[in-house]
Write a structure and sequence with these properties.
Blueprint (H helix, E strand, L loop, with lengths): L3 E8 L10 H16 L8 E5 L3 H4 L5 H8 L7 E4 L5 H14 L5 E9 L7 H5 L14 H16 L3 H15 L13 H6 L2 E3 L2 E2 L8 E10 H4 L7 E10 L14 H14 L8 E3 L5 H10 L8 H6 L16 H4 L7 H14 L12 E8 L4 E8 L4
Parallel strand pairs: 2-3, 2-4, 9-10
Antiparallel strand pairs: 1-7, 1-8, 4-7, 5-6, 8-11, 10-11
Helix pairs in contact: 4-14, 7-11
Length: 386
Amino acid sequence: MRDVAIIGVGHTKFGELWERSFRELISEAGLGAIEDSNIGGADLEAMFVGNMSSGLFVEQEHIAALISDSMGLNPIPCTRVEAACASGGLALRQGIMAVASGYHDVVVSAGVEKMTDVVDATPAIATASDQEWEAQQGATFPSLYAMIARRHMHEYGTTREQLAMMSVVNHKNAANNPYAQFPFETTVEKVINSSPVADPLTLLDCSPVSDGAAAVVICAADKAKEFTDTPIYVKASAQASGTMALHSRRDICTIDSTIAASRKAYKMAGVTVKDIDATEVHDCFSINGLLAIEDLGFAEKGKGGIALEEGQTMIDGDFPINPSGGLKARGHPLGATGIAQAAEIVWQLRGEAGKRQVEGAEIGMTHNIGGTGGTAAVHIFGRDRN
C-alpha cells in the first residue's frame, strides 16, 4: 500500500443557502479543491462523493453522473457513497484506498447535502435509524440522543451544565470560522434555556439543518510535492460498524464503533490519543460530542463532562476539540460533514486556520459517525510523512 497525501481542499459556506442549488454547491467545493491543489483536469482520475439522501432532499438520484457533468469532468468515473451522516467520511476513505492501492494516483473525495429544499427534514434524517424498531415507532434523532443523554446523566452524574459546555465551546470556535453557519458565541445559560427539543436537549444542543459541500484532492505521497509545498499526509483510515437500534446495545452510553475505529486508527498511525493535537468530532448533538471525547480515549468513561467543564477541549486546552465549531455551529450538511472535518484538519496542520488555529498542530484526527453509531470512520493526518 502506498502513502497518501491531501494536496488541496475546497469548502462552501454552510447554512440555509436558499439561493444555491445542489449542483452549484458541489461544483464550488470540488473546483475549489482542484484549484487549491494546483492539479490540471488531466491529472484527476476519479471522484468519490458522500451524500446521504439526495432523493428525499432534492428529489434527484444518480447524482454521481450529475456531479461529474456539472463540474465539466466527464468522462472520469464518479461514485456516490452513502453511510447516513458518515457518508463524507466513507467517501474520504474510498478515495484514500483507491490511491493507496495504486489503482489511481489523483482523486477527489467530496461531500454534499442540500437539506433546506424540504419543508421538514426530520423524516429524511430518521431513515438513518433502525426504521422497524425506532423511526416507525415515533423515535426521532433528537429523542434517541436525549435517551442517551439521560442515561449518561443517571449513570455518571453528568450535569446539564457540563452537557451545555459542548455547545458553548463549539460556538466560541465557530465565531472565527468564515464557513460556519452560526459564527457567534453563546453561554451555558442560553443553551439550557433555549427552546426544548427532547429532554434534556434544547435547540442549542442540536446541530442545524444545513446546506453545503466540501472536497479534498488526494494524491500518492510520492507525487504530492509536484503540486504543493504543504501536503498533509494520511496516517490512518479506519472504519467500523455498530448496532443501529439503541435497545440492542450492550451500553447506550458508549459508541462501540467509535472505539473500534479509533483503536484501529491509532495502531495504523503508530500514535496514541495523547499525540493528537486537534480533533474534529461528530457532535450532531451535545451528548454525542461528549461521548466522542470518552470513546476516542481523551477522557475516561463518565468523565467527558468534567473535561468540558474544565476547558480541556478548548483551542488552548489539553486536547482541542472542533476548532471549526463542529457540527453544532459550523453546520451539518449530512454528506459533507466528514469531508469538512478533513478540510479543517488540513488547514490546522498547514497553519492556515487563522484565529481558531491550534498552536503547533502537527497531528490531527477526524471522527465521523452515521446515525447513532451504526457506522464510524476515523482518520488521522500528519504534517510529516513518517
